[in-house]
# Entry
Amino acid sequence: MNKKQSITYSQVGDNYDTKDPIKKLALAAAAQTKKNLGKGYQEISDTRGESAFAIQIPGTNPFIATVIEGLGTKNLIADAMRKIEDPERSPAPSGAGRSRRVTGKTYYDVVGHDTVATIINDLVTIGAKPLVVHAYWAIEDNSWLQDTERMTDLINGWKNACDLAGAAWGGGETATMKQIVVPNTAEFAGSAVGIISSEKNLITDKRLKAGDRILLCRSNGVNANGISLTRAIAAKLSQGYATKLPNGELYGEALLTKTNIYAQLVQDLLDANINIHYISNITGHGMRKVMRARDNYKYVIEKIFEPQPVFTFIQEHAGLDDYEMYQTYNMGQDYVIFLASNDVQKAQEIVKKNGFESIDAGCVEQGERQVIIKPKNLVYKGETLNLR
# Structure
């Protein structure tokens, strides 16, 4: 696909130039409601690791943290993958009940897992230990619930992700939304409550300073962002999600890789007295999220992980340059931990013990707010992340 045929994220329905001003308007309105907390409650207004919110209860040391998040459209890929028939396999025997599928999976264990991951990974950016996760599943009508295999996978995926996060599943809401939710689909979201045990464990951008090192954790792939663009690409491929990547993996399966959950890692770092200065979860806005903190610093990235093959495939078939890709996707790194240089080695050992990979990727410098990704010769100016 040549440059004239390029497909950008904004063209497939998610335009941050439209969305971000609305977010800022909502934040301003939300700020006006702080008075409703009452005397003695302290809202940590600069604790905006992502969409997490922390409140200190009068007369106590701990902080309560809350967050709400949604999966987006990743479940539509699961729906499509489940239906794909394998032309190289013979039809199912008579009476078998279903035709031969490429994998025979529903992939709803991934849907459940990734919804929880999007919630939890935002919550723990401010140092919260997850306590309870609530589910919000919206369907067109109750017939969607009658697929036992899909529902079993969804429930198990959600439950297992809660286990990984160390949180209880506190129930939720299954809303029947005829004429709002499209038939034969569902919407997945949820919220979580956590506790920050002490002010020492409260991670805000007040700690961030010039000279801090930037630790990047390697992602498992696309996660739940930029999915509308990946779906637009699949629609243009003759074999759709069954298209094989150069490494032999199916495009759809690569997109359905489970997202890392970082709750235990953050707690282990705090328990080891690692002084975390800030955390940013690389979701929407891609690598621009490295400059999520308030203060005017320059974030210099000297090393990056090599993007997984699925990102290269997306880039080639969408006809996008590196600038567009790195401002849309995580491109191989999805969690950014800022800390003092003398904590880097110990922190990386803890990251490894948790089963993740990390690199000491760069540093925070005094200067105009921007992200500089040296290996790709990319610069994102501060005004391109207009969230505050």
